[in-house]
Design a protein that fits this description.
- The protein is mainly α.
- The chain has a single domain (about 1-205), classed as Heme Oxygenase, Chain A (Up-down Bundle).
- It is built from nine helices and no strands.
- The protein is globular, with a radius of gyration of 17 Å.
- About 35% of the residues are buried.
Length: about 210
């Protein structure tokens, strides 16, 4: 995951956020797609909570609720601040990258054992927290982008990540070598999807018809 994080942090989208040079269109594209993504991410966490051991179930269920709260509160206000119509949240379809990513998450969380689904959802937590922390060091000259950065560098979000990592570590420590390798494979896959998500926003990715 460390190598994947380096690739993510070097992406033009995040560098543009930090420098304040990211086009508003790319930011709006990302926020809209991230909202669509979060709806399915919350479903994936709910699926995991149903499979989880008792202690982990309450953690994942709470995080599923938090994902919806982020969608409803943070994203529309960011769009408004960026001069983009929040109504687009209800009229924009999922991009190819969003469709691929959410389909993968939901399939793994529904069809595979708990430890595999847990690994698949981890990068969304961990990478965003690492991105927020890294970008906050320099901040952003754009106040809207600075607000996004601060949201993911916030102590509350870091606490959610820490809780999830504790569950992951506990599951991995009690799993076979083969199971841990399966977890690593899902982590690598969804880390790549995270990179693709940023990249789709920069390119303005659309369906061919």
């Amino acid at each position: 995951m460390e190598n994947g994080l380096k690739r993510v942090l070097a992406h033009d989208f995040l560098q543009g956020l930090s420098r304040g040079t990211l086009p508003r269109e790319a930011f709006g594209y990302f926020i809209i797609q991230d909202t669509l993504y979060l709806r399915d991410y919350a479903r994936a966490l709910s699926l995991l909570a149903a499979k989880a051991p008792t202690g982990a179930a309450s953690t994942l269920a709470a995080h599923a609720s938090a994902a919806v709260a982020t969608e409803l509160e943070l994203h529309p206000s960011l769009l408004h601040a960026a001069g983009i119509d929040p109504g687009l949240l209800n009229s924009t379809p999922k991009s190819p990258a969003t469709t691929a990513y959410t389909s993968y998450l939901l399939a793994v969380c529904h069809q595979r054992p708990f430890h595999e689904g847990l690994a698949a959802v981890l990068p969304c937590y961990w990478i965003y927290e690492q991105v927020g922390r890294a970008l906050q060091q320099d901040g952003s000259s754009d106040p809207v982008y600075a607000r996004w950065i601060d949201a993911y560098a916030a102590p509350g979000f870091a606490q959610s990540v820490a809780e999830t990592l504790e569950v992951v570590d506990s599951v991995a420590s009690g799993s076979s070598t083969a199971a841990v390798e399966d977890m690593a494979g899902h982590i690598e896959a969804t880390t790549r999807y995270e990179w693709m998500f940023w990249d789709a926003a920069v390119r303005g990715e659309q369906w061919p018809w």
